[in-house]
Amino acid sequence: MIAFPNAGVAEAAREGYADAVRDVAALPPVRSLAGGHVCVAGFTGQVGATLVRILTEANIRVTGIARGPRSAVPDGVDAVYADVSDLSGALSLHGFTHVFYAVGITSDYRSRPDEVISSQLVGLERFLERVDPDCRFVFVSSARVYGRHPVDTPLLEESAAIVAPMHLDNLYDSTKRLAESLCLSHAERRGLHVTVIRAGNLYGLGAPQSRTSVSELVREAAATQRVTLTGHPSSLRNYCSAVDSAQGMLLAAANGAPGRPYNVGSDEHLTTQQLGQAIAACFDERIEIVARPAGAPSFQHLSIERARTELGYTPRLRLNDALPAVAAELAGALRDHA
């Protein structure tokens, strides 16, 4: 039996999410993109789909690139289906005024290392070398570039990564670090206006097929009435809505400095145990939380002060604002595919 959250609570959360989309779409830097030629690479993923929703809400037409179709293409989007690592003849990047690169594998990266490498390195380099010199380019990186910190101190953009040289996490984390270096290389060597956002742990609506750490736990709760925590229950992570991640991307394109990274997250930091409890609280049925502590806790305490002061970034949503709607969307997708 698939568990569902309270319908009224979920609907209120959906309305709040839609309000946040409209708020971001009304920002002057977003409105200024009208008349531009905007490309969203990865437009069917969690961040890309939300970015497209904001842009089309602002009546800005978008060229969306994805490997293949997943759902109906929104009005205002010209869809191109191509592998970003092999653009031969599929798409000319000439003429784009803005490119948002939100391509990539998330929670299932260990089973798909070839796709991580092809999207974060090969595809990114192909895009960077082909866009026009005056294009505004934003790359979506991750707070995981900082590695696993053993103490709870704020992570600034200059904080050093703590990395085990040989670890399976590096299949994802190290590709993001190298991808950021590619962006910096193009900024310094070619003068390309490329900025980087480092996103916190994402959640959102509009891409029920996407696999993030949050969505995977929500799916498990809906399908099995259980949440199995991975890692240490006391590990701390930053949680950021896809709306706010997209807001950070749009503001970075308008106000960010070339070759500069920005932490784009929230003021909300939860332990893994607290995340499990928040997910369980969304459902009417009792959800069992299963903790399997592994190793020592680690801490991802993300400082977003640079994004606030340099970009004008202000988070719109908290996890509990949106989580009931996320749970309803993912539970509905499970029911439809049962």
Short description:
By secondary structure, this protein is of the alpha/beta class. The chain has one domain (7-336): 3-Layer(aba) Sandwich (Rossmann fold), CATH 3.40.50.
Looking at this protein, list some descriptive labels.
7-stranded parallel β-sheet; 3-stranded mixed β-sheet; Rossmann fold; 14 strands; 10 helices; 338 residues; alpha/beta; single chain
Task: Give a written overview of the molecule.
The chain is an alpha/beta fold. It has a single domain, classed as NAD(P)-binding Rossmann-like Domain (Rossmann fold, 3-Layer(aba) Sandwich). Helix content is 40%, strand content 18%. It contains ten helices and 14 strands. The protein has helices at residues 7-25, 28-31, 46-57, 113-130, 170-190, 213-224, 242-255, 272-280, 305-311, 319-336; strands at residues 38-41, 62-66, 77-81, 98-101, 136-142, 154-155, 193-199, 201-203, 226-229, 236-241, 261-264, 269-271, 288-291, 301-302. Strands 3-2-1-4-5-7-11 form a seven-stranded parallel β-sheet, with helices on both faces. Strands 8-10-12 form a three-stranded mixed β-sheet. The chain has a two-stranded parallel ribbon with strand order 6-14. α6 crosses α8.
